[in-house]
Amino acid sequence: MKRRTAILISGGGSNMEALIRSMTAGHPAQPVLVVSNRPGAGGLDRAARLGVPTAIVDHRPYGEDRAAFESKLDAVLSDVAPDILCLAGFMRVLTPDFVRKWQGRMLNIHPSLLPKYRGLHTHARALAAGDSEHGCTVHEVTAELDDGPILGQARLSILPDDTAESLAARVLVQEHRLYPIVLRRFADGQRSPVLLDAD
Ligand code: GRF
């Protein structure tokens, strides 16, 4: 039985597209829904072009009431009964209650070699720290932000002339490699981390 997979986005959805394109006939997972918290997210058009149903749960009407936003999100998700949630550029912090309900079935991709650089502006922070390497991580989502069990990482060397933009672009290429590999393993029940080296 294919694992029904919903993907949550807030923006362009390039990771979402990589995931959807990877779920071909023999894949243990299938995309059942793409949900965005932002009505104008470019990823919604991408998903529609790829033939995947989409939904919008705009977080703005709920203000700071995260629980109310999440109960709407939950209702939309339960309509498609996903087995796996993939956060892919989803920029809302989820409450512990929501996470607890999905823990063990929810993945996220983060643009750093966790546990380094949780949170935002990871590329600029790695450059400012003078790091020699950087990369991305797919992890299980837990109540702690960017902190759950690591399921995969891709690493690359930081180049002398790298800027935050050039580094982000090179890391994004690795995200599109890593996330589909991890999702396939996860859908097959594998939990040991995969480590990719981009150099
Ligand atoms: C990616 O850099 C991802 O690591 C981060 O947000 C960005 C989303 O890109 N979570 P996209 O929407 O998948 O193109």
Give a brief outline of the structure.
With 199 residues, the protein is an alpha/beta fold.
Helical residue percent?
Answer: 25-40%
Q: Strand order of the main beta sheet, please? A: 3-2-1-4-5-6-7-8
Which compounds are bound in this model?
A: 5-O-phosphono-beta-D-ribofuranosylamine
CATH architecture of the largest domain: 3-Layer(aba) Sandwich
Calculate the mean pLDDT score and round it: 97
Q: Given this structure, which CATH class of the largest domain is correct?
A: Alpha Beta
The number of distinct helices, counting runs of at least 4 residues, comes to 6
- CATH homology superfamily of the largest domain: Formyl transferase, N-terminal domain
Major sheet characteristics: 8 strands, mixed
The figure for the number of domains is 2
Distance, first to last CA: 37 Å
CATH fold description of the largest domain: Rossmann fold
Regions with little confidence, pLDDT below 50 for 5+ residues? none
Helix vs. strand class: alpha/beta
What is the string of SSEs from the N terminus onward?
EHEHEHEHEHEEHE
Based on DSSP secondary structure assignment, what is the total number of beta strands? 8
The global form is: globular
Q: What is the gyration radius calculated from CA atoms?
A: 16 Å
Strand content range: 15-25%
